[in-house]
Specification:
The chain is mostly beta strands and 594 residues long. It has one domain: Neuraminidase. Helix content is 7%, strand content 30%. The chain contains 8 helices and 31 strands. The strands form 6 sheets. A 9-stranded antiparallel beta sheet has the order 13-14-16-17-18-23-22-21-20, with no helix packed on it. It has a 6-stranded mixed beta sheet with strand order 8-7-12-11-10-9, with no helix packed on it. It starts with 29 loop residues before the first strand and ends in an 8-residue tail after the last strand. The relative contact order is 0.14. The structure holds MU-OXO-diiron and calcium ion (CA) (3 copies). One calcium ion (CA) binds next to loops.
């Protein structure tokens, strides 16, 4: 039984309505200001190129500027006592590129320089930020010794069972110990020892194997024999799997970065498994082992967790830096009676062995999806972010954004944990780890919320919600008060259309779990998704990312396609929309949401 909770937090703001305005709208009494947009200088010493509105910045300049498509992010206070909530670092993911916007003439022509610019526009930014006070608000500190861009070409180490594995070796890296770059950096995590986790999601789209014979590994991860649209392999043969067959095995990982040490080498933590990682939410078990919750965001994919072998030791940076290299990777099975099991993906157990094609643990983590198939995990409706309730030990929430293919012809049908066919609005599932212990192998689960709209034509889309309607939940995080924040990512092809007609632009809501009542806090500009959530330690500043306003802008370079729908944040007619980090504050300086 859970300990009784302290009185629940109270939401003190008035909900904002649905909106189609091309701007960020927050409740009365709050401000929202742009801090760091695509193309803004990251703040490298002696190298701060200004953004050129015609997208004529070079690849080299892009590598010193904010990348595109801001996604997961975390705030790291600089250890200065009472200033901890006024000064710190932000690590920010740049998920992917919109090449129609990234280059002056879009994709009309193609070149090695364009590929280099795209490779410089993904990855991670580390920026130094401070609250300048006296009404001046937050700003990026430039130059900063902490400023850093990690791109698709930054050298990155390998830790865990796949380090040095035969499937990780390439001509350029015959030992299988160093990878160039990280890409498709979606959601994130933050460790208790002060490092940032960036998660590689849809890596398959950057690779192509034109041979026509795809391996089971390639097929299971969505690699195709035709280019998916980024056209990197055309100019950079590293992404051509006929030339470099193992290169795709080197992506799809969680990467650990020490933002406080700009010289430190990021490391791909392969013990956490290779899949289309959404986020990596870290908590500690009562005995100090690190537990990492992770979603694999694709239809009918799984929820995973990693439990470290070692224990977190406060202040022992060296020991903590090895925690994510050794431990047990599990995948979740949700049973119809409301119980669930974490099934270990360990070589030699439950059929995960040479008879099923796994030579060793390295091959198990590289082919984690195939191993999870063997043990019989539950196929979910696109697992996105996972959040651990700071007020209730072992209580965990996961957004399942949508899955219109559920129950379709030749597709898996409904099950207790994914109860709706044609699940266009998604849901939020919750589980309680046995004994409130994050390292437990058994849990009890329930459906926290079925998203939807009460006036829907189809029962499958009505949902079961208290408060404000929404669909396609994605970003998810608790604040220190125990309020759960939910961000939506209704896709560009349905936002405010079809089943979502009248529901406006993507949004962010707050819900106190004890009441289950959702309240809309923010609406974004046209064509964007809302993603990335990080609070300062005092909960009085909230950082949020606006991703891909105006999508699909890549159609801008095709005169037959519709015109740009957003000019956010610059606002002048025809200006290129830019993904950006936004700072949200309460005008009276109070706790966000209170
Ligand atoms: Fe990159 Fe699943 O969102
Ligand atoms: Ca997402
Ligand atoms: Ca999403
Ligand atoms: Ca996205």
């Amino acid at each position: 039984a859970q300990a009784p909770l302290a009185s629940p937090a109270k939401l003190g703001f008035t909900a904002v309505p649905f909106s189609v305005a091309d701007r960020v709208i927050v409740p009365d009494g709050y401000s929202a200001e742009v801090l760091y947009a695509w193309g803004d200088a990251v703040g490298l010493k002696g190298n701060s190129p200004a953004f050129r509105a015609d997208a004529s910045n070079s690849a080299a300049e892009q590598a010193a500027q904010a990348g595109m498509h801001h996604d997961g992010m975390a705030f790291f206070p600089l250890p200065q006592g009472s200033r901890a909530s006024k000064h710190g670092l932000l690590a920010i993911n740049h998920e992917y590129t919109d090449d129609g916007l990234l280059h002056g003439d879009g994709m009309k022509t193609w070149s090695g320089e364009k590929v280099k610019k795209a490779q410089a526009a993904v990855g991670v930014s580390v920026i130094e930020v401070e609250d300048a006070g006296k009404g001046r608000g937050w700003r990026v500190v430039r130059p900063s010794k902490y400023a850093r861009r990690i791109t698709a070409n930054t050298p990155i180490g390998i830790g865990g069972p796949a380090r040095g594995h035969a499937l990780m070796k390439t001509e350029a890296d015959p030992l299988g110990v160093e990878i160039l770059g990280t890409l498709n950096n979606c959601a994130n995590g933050k460790t208790p020892w002060g490092t940032y986790l960036t998660c590689e999601e849809n890596f398959d789209g950057y690779f192509v194997n034109e041979s026509g014979t795809l391996s089971d590994n390639e097929k299971r991860y969505g690699i195709k024999n035709k280019d998916a649209g980024y056209k990197w392999a055309w100019e950079d043969f590293r992404f051509d799997l006929q030339i470099n067959p193992n290169e795709a095995n080197r992506f799809g990982w969680v990467v650990e970065i020490d933002p406080y040490d700009p010289k430190s080498r990021p490391v791909k933590r392969t013990a956490l498994g290779r899949f289309k990682h959404e986020g990596a939410t870290v908590t500690l078990a009562p005995d100090g082992r690190a537990v990492v919750y992770m979603g694999d965001d694709q239809r009918f994919e799984y929820i995973y967790k990693f439990v470290s072998k070692g224990r977190y030791q406060a202040g022992n940076a060296k020991a903590n830096s090895r925690l994510l290299d050794e431990g047990t990777l599990y995948v979740a099975r949700f049973d119809a009676d409301g119980s669930g099991q974490w099934l270990p993906l360990v070589h030699g157990q439950n059929g995960v062995d040479a008879s099923r094609g796994f030579a060793d643990q390295g091959e198990v983590v590289i082919k984690a999806r195939l191993a999870a198939d063997v043990v019989g995990a539950t196929k979910m409706d696109r697992p996105e972010w996972i959040a651990v309730n700071p007020k209730a030990p072992g209580e965990v929430y996961c957004t399942l954004t949508n899955n219109a293919e559920r129950g379709g012809e030749g597709k898996p049908g409904v099950d207790a944990a994914n109860p709706r066919a044609d699940n266009k609005f998604g849901h939020i599932i919750r589980w309680h780890e046995a004994g409130g212990n994050a390292a437990a192998t058994a849990f009890k689960w329930d459906l926290f919320a079925l998203a939807g709209r009460p006036d829907a034509k189809s029962d499958a889309h009505k949902g079961a919600l208290k408060g404000d309607a929404f669909g396609s939940p994605d970003g998810l995080a608790f604040d220190a008060q125990g309020v759960l924040w939910v961000q939506t990512d209704v896709s560009t092809s349905t936002v405010n259309m079809k089943e979502y007609a009248g529901m406006g632009n993507n949004q962010m809501l707050a819900v106190v779990p004890q009441t289950g009542e959702f309240r809309r806090f923010l609406t974004g500009p046209s064509g964007c998704e809302i993603t990335g959530i990080s609070f300062t330690p005092d909960s009085r500043t909230l950082f949020v990312n606006i991703q891909h306003p105006g999508e699909p802008e890549n159609e801008r370079s095709d005169p037959a396609k519709p015109k740009a729908i957003s000019s956010w944040p610059d606002g002048d007619a025809g200006s290129r929309p830019r993904s950006a980090t936004v700072v949200i504050r309460k005008l009276d300086g109070g706790v966000i949401g209170s």
